[in-house]
Design goal:
The complex is a heterodimer of chains A (about 230) and B (about 170). With about 230 residues, chain A is an alpha+beta fold. Chain A is about 30% helix and about 25% strand. Chain A has three helices and ten strands. Chain A starts with 14 loop residues before the first helix and ends in a 6-residue tail after the last helix. The chains are: A alpha+beta (about 230), B mainly alpha (about 170). Chain A: InterPro entries: CcO_II, CcO_II-like_C, CcO_II_C, Copper_CuA, Cupredoxin, Cyt_c_oxidase_su2, Cyt_c_oxidase_su2_TM_dom, Cyt_c_oxidase_su2_TM_sf.
Chain lengths: ~230, ~170
């Protein structure tokens, strides 16, 4: 989860998120370099007493400031596409989990072995246990095994929602009538928070997602406690 | 109703045009703008026409004297010839102004006014903060975040020494 007044990305919990953080650093550095160059040039232009009104052509500099941005764009595109294809890699998931968006809660279905399903509503502020996080806690957390590839199938039962967990690098739209697939993998146990990321009505800000990653052995114990809804 | 509104629209434009004409010393009439004109510009050092178009008798005599050798001209005469040709010198046309003080002052005034509005809003309009902002709750919350190892790589949990149970120095 984010700490108060946090500006940057959350620490990575999945390998894809690590790649995304590195790519973000790369792209942001390029942005800072270009912006400071432009700012410097503007300041030079605003503080000179010299004038020059008779430029007719400038072929050499036009070549440079066309070719150089093209090269910079390629240098951004190549790592970006690399990560894009990485997210689509084939891997054999250990588990398939369906996340279905409703107004205004998520429901989860584990259908691999038995039909296990539950709803996940936000815990209202008044009902928080001491030390819990306002607007982030839910009544039933989504429990998953760590260090395993998990296939997420995300859809919606009414309007557009989006299932997002920033520290795992996942954000996938929940579209009614469509199943979107995303892959999840956590390298650490613990709780990881996210929030609905597509405007869906009055309580759009109040339908969070909490993933609880636990050890393999404990996961099957947990699953055995669920009943058919 | 509509007629008076239309008239006031036209009337306003007529007034603003005459203000512009007065500001430039009635030099520019609306039909003159296509003819060569005088400008004081740093990047156009030799304007298309002289500043003084209609010379007085003494100025005409001076222009005749200018046709002879210039070493016979006194300093005052040279300055007079310059002022016939040009309205402002480079030093005069490039002079700074005190406009920046007005701009900065007005900006600070409006920022201060906005600050007053925000203070009044906080005092009279906003409700209380949720109980999760109380110091005790924030302490429990932070403890829970450390137990959960939130952002352990370079975020919150990385700043806590788990052996000594204190923040890292």
């Amino acid at each position: 989860m984010a700490t108060p007044a946090q500006l940057g990305l959350q620490n990575a919990t999945s390998p894809i998120m690590e790649e995304l953080i590195a790519f973000h650093d790369h792209a942001l550095m390029i942005i800072f370099l270009i912006s400071s160059l432009v700012l410097y040039i503007i300041s030079l232009m605003l503080t000179t007493k010299l004038t020059h009104t008779s430029t007719m052509n400038a072929q050499e500099i036009e070549m440079i400031w066309t070719i150089l941005p093209a090269i910079i764009l390629i240098m951004i595109a190549l790592p970006s596409l690399r990560i894009l294809y990485m997210t689509d890699e084939f891997n054999k998931p250990y588990l398939t989990l369906k996340a279905i968006g409703h107004q205004w809660y998520w429901s989860y279905e584990y259908s691999d072995y038995e039909d296990l399903a539950f709803d996940s509503y936000i815990t209202p502020t008044y009902f928080l246990e001491p030390g819990e996080f306002r607007l982030l806690e839910v009544d039933n957390r989504t429990t998953l095994p760590m260090e395993a590839d998990i296939r997420m199938l995300i859809t919606s039962q009414d309007v557009l929602h989006s299932w997002a967990v920033p520290s795992l690098g996942v954000k996938t739209d929940a579209i009614p009538g469509r199943l979107n697939q995303a892959m999840l993998a956590s390298m650490r146990p613990g709780l990881f928070y996210g929030q609905c990321s597509e405007i869906c009505g009055s309580n759009h800000s109040f339908m969070p997602i909490v993933l609880e990653f636990i050890y393999f052995q404990d996961f099957e114990v947990w699953a055995s406690y669920l009943y058919i809804v | 109703m509509l007629a008076t509104r239309v008239f006031s629209l036209v009337g306003k434009r007529a007034i603003s045009t005459s203000v512009c004409v007065r500001a430039h010393g009635s030099v520019v009439k609306s039909e003159d703008y296509a003819l060569p004109s005088y400008v004081d510009r740093r990047d156009y050092p030799l304007p298309d026409v002289a500043h003084v178009r209609h010379l007085s008798a003494s100025q005409k005599a001076l222009k005749e004297k200018e046709k002879a050798s210039w070493s016979s001209l006194s300093m005052d005469e040279k300055v007079e010839l310059y002022r016939i040709q040009f309205k402002e010198s480079f030093a005069e046309m490039n002079r700074g102004s005190n406009e920046w003080k007005t701009v900065v002052g007005a900006a600070m005034f409006f920022i201060g006014f906005t600050a007053i509005l925000i203070i009044l809003e906080k005092r009279y309009v906003y409700g209380p903060l949720p109980h999760t902002f109380d110091k005790e709750w924030v302490a429990m919350q932070t403890k829970r975040m450390l137990d959960l190892k939130v952002n352990p790589v370079d975020g919150l949990a990385s700043k806590w020494d788990y052996d000594k149970k204190e923040w890292k120095k």
